[in-house]
């Protein structure tokens, strides 16, 4: 999984502004910002789908790569797993890793612990962003088998030693994360890449409730993700199993682990076409602006033709809307509205709607609709908080603060704005980035 940057939301919002860069708000001129905030609750996105459906997900996640290549044999670590953090990592990485390892032990029943020993099974290493992107363009972070550090990876990266499909049993892996990333980006990388180091190697755009989806809507491992990992390490399964063998075993495994899921569901899905995947990937990469917009439009047309609905069609419109921001405001808003309509069809897509809400808030704020902005943000803020997305939460709160100011409620506005800053420090990193986000949102006001 090559996780895309969560900071793209803020960068796109800036291009909505029709005014010159505004002076920073009062909160942005303070010499010191509030302390960084973090999530302390134990909320986990629940498992809601049928075992028949999730059994098919397990097979498709485990026996294919993102490229579509088949994996002949399932692989996993056998026995206790150790994780080491290489020197130079920020304190937030260590704290977030400890929290994640605790969840993996509790929720996925995986025997995994942090160690300082050099022979750890999994090593997490921060690497300068420019070096990481030279090696793997367009990747925010990634995991590689059979290496323990960056130098080993660079010497082996064009060999079969780092081919996931050649594994029978996993013994070691390394996770590489950009050293300059914001705390939330680092945490998100930890969740996604450690999950891949342990289990599924594929991403599926159809999944509504998982980090194993390249739409990057979910920031941290969900109940579904933990169930997939717990199934991977169930005693009924083992390294070297074929897809046919795993297919026979997964149904009773899920029945044992998730008895509430033994109802309904066919486990039959329309496959995601490689042509659509190519179009959406081009839309989200560093191609020319025109090429990206054309690719997003192709993705929308294909999703409509296939009548997918759900995450894939909604994300197609979301991508198109983001790429029309600053180019064609009417087309952008229409795309966001359509994505919101599609996402509203399922209670499992609330976090998807929250991502749409922050985009729509840019339009309501810039048009002077304070009440509309507050309505959008009030519905999305609790969702962003439950899903532990500090960057999204901070942006929503900044929009609400500006809308309250427009209504003349300056005291409430300042309270919300100051509260947003602690979340923004976790979501966006440096004080300069936090102040820039404040200025961008402020600049959208008419």
Helix content: 40-55%
Oligomerization: single chain
Count of separate DSSP helical elements? 17
Indicate the structural class.
mainly alpha
Q: Estimate the mean pLDDT confidence.
A: 92
Specify the biggest β-sheet: 5 strands, mixed
Low-pLDDT stretches:
4-30
Element-by-element helix/strand order:
HHEHEEHEHEHHHHHHHHHHHH
N-end to C-end Cα span: 40 Å
The strand count comes to: 5
Instruction: Report the portion of residues in β strands.
Output: 5-15%
Radius of gyration, rounded? 22 Å
Strand line-up of the largest beta sheet = 2-1-3-5-4
Shape by Cα distribution: globular
What does this entry look like structurally?
By secondary structure, the chain is mainly alpha-helical. Helices cover 52% and strands 5% of the residues. The protein contains 17 helices and five strands. The protein has helices at 8-14, 51-62, 91-107, 129-135, 150-156, 183-198, 223-232, 243-257, 274-283, 289-306, 310-324, 329-343, 350-366, 370-386, 390-406, 410-428, 431-442; strands at residues 81-85, 112-114, 122-127, 142-145, 173-178. The protein has a five-stranded mixed β-sheet. Helix 12 packs antiparallel against helix 13 (350-366), helix 13 runs antiparallel to helix 14 (370-386) and helix 15 (390-406) runs antiparallel to helix 16. The longest helix has 19 residues, at 410-428. It is globular and about 65 Å long. It starts with 7 loop residues before the first helix and ends with a helix.
